[in-house]
## 1
Amino acid sequence: MRLRSPARSGQRSPLRADLPDDRHVLDRRSWGGALQGLWLIVAARTERGSSPGRLRILRETRVIVTVRDPRWRGGRVAGDKPEQLQIRLDDDTGSETLSRYTFQEVLAAEVVVEMLAGKPIRRVLCESDEDYVIEWTDERPEFVSVKHREPDQGEWTCSTLCSDGGVRHLFNTWKKAGKRIRCRLQTNAGLKTGESEARRLAVACRDEDTATLKMYLADLKTKLSADSEEEVEAFLADLRIQDSLPKRDDLRPRVLDTLQDQMTSIGWARDRHSARFDLVCSEVHKASSADLRSHARVPSAEVPNAAAIKAQALAAKTVDADRILAALRNAEQASQRQGPSLLEQKLDCGGIGPTGIRRAAALQEHWLRTRYRWSSDLPGDTIDELRRRVLKCADIAERESRDTKKYGSAMQARLESLLASEAAAGVPAYIDEDALLGIAYDETDRCNVVWCEDFVPKAMT
């Protein structure tokens, strides 16, 4: 931030009404010995950033700040004129900091999706002693520190990992927890290679290479202010360093791509993966933003004791399966109020009632879970062959049922009969009639099966 003082000659009152929109005037105190306080109002033009709801300050935005003597009234004090300073906002660190929080929340949301897909995780606690905590069902809790590093800051060295990279903080958290937790550092930056450097340390921690770790003990004892080298060795045995993650602009699409199979295994339709992941990110953000201190100010009539206050605070910071399922139910209800999905629209167009539509959605999710478990995702595999057989049956059912424009109910009955025959003719042991019907409804979402004449899709959420 740089300060520039404009020329005084011919300077007009900064209180005039025709100031540009990005200028705001401060009427307070003078710079002299009578200075008792200064109010600084920084208001700038903003524009929508790339992420929804985020505002980014335009670079080179100028803000007008005026400082006045307290004796000034009506614009005149003998021998004194208000001094006006011009401030240029050349820095955008606020939005960059917000992006770092988004980076952290996407990483935590990835863990939540893995939890929903079956990893042995009970819950994720956000923004507590560390950026987030993974409570495993079969392992000790894992405390995770997330560090985003700008490209011009270079790689982490062993020294900077301790001073700025979160390792020292993780060490203190580990000690505070009685040395009964595991620790992880996640960063987008790389690790410096070389003798006694960060890369070799991370590999030794991962591989539990005690011989290599011993080379670091004396140096890290000083850097971490540890009591002994044995204490450092025990900490390194509980530490994992995950580096070279995608930069913050690339992280979300990369994570989404990585989680495709897991989200399918949960039963989420592929055209809703992005929206469902954003919902998880939203819940992580709410948990991260929950103010623990505010719970201490809750009236005692509402929260009668300290244990209840603590439980309420933990619930606010926790993301578990129940919380996500509740959020999904709320989102589904809102979606139903705003507009049906493509599958629902097509079945409704064909004359299939609400119960049949709900059953179809459930069968589609049943099929997606089955596909995730057994598909090789290679052309010509068993699953691919099943899809072709189901599409053939759907084609036959449609041709035999097109007496009216709303032939969906007749087509559905005929399709169920044909698929029952297909199941009897021979399908893999893990495939049942419901899975075959689920394929048909999934192909409906793919626009390969239509249930009525002249279908026109409506706007979808």
## 2
Amino acid sequence: MYLFDQIHESWYPAFNLSRKLHDELEKLYEEEYVEPAKEYLFAPFSVPIDSVKCVTLFQDPYPNGEGIGYAVAYNEEFKKPKSFRIIEKEFGSELSPSLQEWKDVGVLSANAAMTVKHGLPNSHREKWIRFTSKWIDYLDKRQEVTFLLFGRVAQSFNNNIVANRSRLFYAPHPATRHHNFIGCGIFKNYEPFQSINL
């Protein structure tokens, strides 16, 4: 499988999709037990860029196999992750494992690091800084988008958001600071979320 086939062509200008990058990713999967599975790696970017109205940015994928690429969403064959349950509590309603409700209202949910070594959170952070900076820069300059950044790792990309500064909002990460996350009101900053929470 050619990894970049997962990415909608409208995103190509946002990335430097070289053979070198592809081979580096293939090598990473060969040498380490990596999450998520390869077929989910670029799932957030499978939609046309014009359809993106909001970005929810988290830290990195679930480290134990639950993830399906689209950040926070999970494989329903697994038990619902704790962070997902916390997000539902703050959101105010149950959500489908795939977060299709979010996709339907223009939300791209991504992780600052697209991969993680199995069982070791935050293990691939440095590998993805440049990649994540590039697509955030591109999207911010291209169109109006609301950015919701969850936790310190995601918030480290706040300087990449200039044009949409007035639509930039922060929240603690639900997995690591859940006591501070509940009641933060982060989801109120993107109006279409309110049509889901009925």
## 3
Amino acid sequence: MKRMHMMTMALVATLSASALAEPPDDNNLPGGVGSRVTEPSKDDVKMGPQTPSEPGSVLKDQPVTKLAAGDQKFVKTVSQTGLQEVMLSEMAQDRAQAQSVTKFAMRMVGDHSKANAELSAMSTSRGQPPPIEPAASFAAIHKRLGKLNGPAFDRAFMRVMVTDHQKAAALLRKQTKRTQDALVKKLIADQLPVIEAHLTVALAVQRDLARGVSNTDVDRMMEQAMPRAGATLNKPGMQSSPRMHEMLPASPSSPSKDLPKTLDQPRPTTPATPPY
């Protein structure tokens, strides 16, 4: 009996040792097949963790579309001219004598400051920071006008305004034919009517100063000139601005039947100041 008990114990010990030596079966692990933790493959390591893309992340990574070389030069020139107009007009508000010149200068500061801001935003969005100073030639003009006051300043300032706006209008009309950039075209379409209206009024103020009239109604003329400038710009097939003399009010001594009725209205008569 004792011998039988010892044989049973030996058999149990042998079976237990055999069971411990066998590797565990995946099917018997919690979770069944596939529950064993495996090391990541080389492909998984290369790809890294996959996370959902943020909305707009693709657009943020896209490079900025810079302006073409011709558009870059154009934007720089227009920006510098705009800065010059504001600085000279601020000077005119202190030195001008004629009421019409002072009001014209106030209008220039407001309109060109707005245009400069729009131009700066557009050029910055295209990777071209705008200039912060006028062109080098501005220093001589600023110095010359800085020595003048009263009627002499009025005449000199208006000559500069006429010349600058003639050049600016010609530049914008030329560039709108050359550029292929939609943003540049939009900028020109917005600003050219304003520049042409400025030129119309500047010519009228200059002419009235020569006749001894210093109270030209700048605001009224701007209101009348702006619709015509915009209509001319948007007219199909139009390649150039209207003739400026057609947009000016008729002189009392030489009325013209060809002038627009909206501009050919007599202004209230006021005593003329002595000729300069």
## 4
Amino acid sequence: MLDELDPSQTEDPVLRQQFRALINLLEKALSDNMVLKKENQHLKGGQGRPSFKPAKNQASISSEKERNEVVAGYTRPPKKEPKNARFTIDRPEILPVDRQNLPQDAVLKGHEEIIVQDVLF
């Protein structure tokens, strides 16, 4: 906003000096306003605007291969095996479906195997 104002375009030297003084006064008022806004936020209990630190050098980012390697004796835990592999199936049961109870436009999409556990307490 203030960058667009150019006092050198004014021909009158007194007016140019007053113009520069006015711009300096406006810049000081804007900076004081920001300080007062921060102080007001602090007094209200708010955090105010965070001050961001400049980004660090991003050259040391590890690759996928390095992350998968063993680091300082630590290995990744083994992948979990499915619970169904531990169960012994004692009786397979095929459940019939009455076609009379199905809608007219019902189409067979395939079969699905499930395991039912009878837990006794």
